[in-house]
Amino acid sequence: MGRPTMAIVCANSLTVIGLKQLLLSVMPSMDIEDFVSVRQLEDSDPDRFIHYFVDFNILLTDRPFFLQRVRRTIVLTTSDEHAKQLQEFHCLRVTVPEKQLVKSLLFLQQLGHSRGKMPVRPRVSGILSAREVEVLSLLVQGYINKEVADRLCISLATVITHRKNITEKLGIRSLSGLTIYAVMNGYVDIDQI
Question: Contact 164/171 with Cβ under 8 angstroms?
Fold first, then answer.
């Protein structure tokens, strides 16, 4: 059997592209396929997917299909009102800032593991120095460069240098990508971001 596969069922191309990128960052061992309709999904052996990320409007149109797969369905909503209408489903609000969306995805991933705890990958020694880990941890917790410098009693220039080194070593440029890396490697807890 191949890698686990998730489906995104959404007609909005920008939503699909962004969600696919975030999902691959959070769960790099997954394959992701996208569909513009449930009809297209049904033509592709739908029960082989471990999760369906489905647009709210598509879910309303094809609710019976997803009710049969309620535990595997995550509804993409644009407001909290939509989520209230769909209490039987997990919902993911896509109109929130990127950091909050990443946190929600990490939380959903955590729910999927036994006893609600994500397995922490062993840290690879030598990639980041102890100080770089401290800087990374504070950055993903929302501190700006100046606050990191103050908390660690180092200069602003040193923080900027550490940040540059972190992004070069990891090959991750975005703060959301660094956040995912920090959580997945046990440098910060989801509740800290």
Answer: no
What pTM value is reported for the model?
A: 0.65
9: helix, strand or coil: strand
Q: What is the pLDDT of residues 25-57, one digit of tens each?
A: 777 778 999 999 999 999 999 999 989 999 999
Non-local (6+) Cβ contacts of 72 within 8 A are: 49, 50, 51, 52
Q: Taking the C-alpha atoms of 189, 122, 113 and 106 in order, what is their torsion angle to the nearest 10 degrees?
A: 40
Q: Rounded distance, CA 109 to CA 27, Å?
A: 8
Which of these, 113, 7, 17, lies nearest to 50 by C-alpha position?
7
Closest-CA residue to 99 (of 176, 173, 37): 176
3 — phi, psi (to 5°)?
Answer: -70, 150
pLDDT in tens, 54-94: 999 999 999 999 999 998 999 998 888 877 778 888 888 88
Please state, in angstroms and rounded to a whole number, the distance separating the CA atoms of residues 111 and 14: 26
Q: Are 185 and 120 in contact (CB under 8 A)?
A: yes
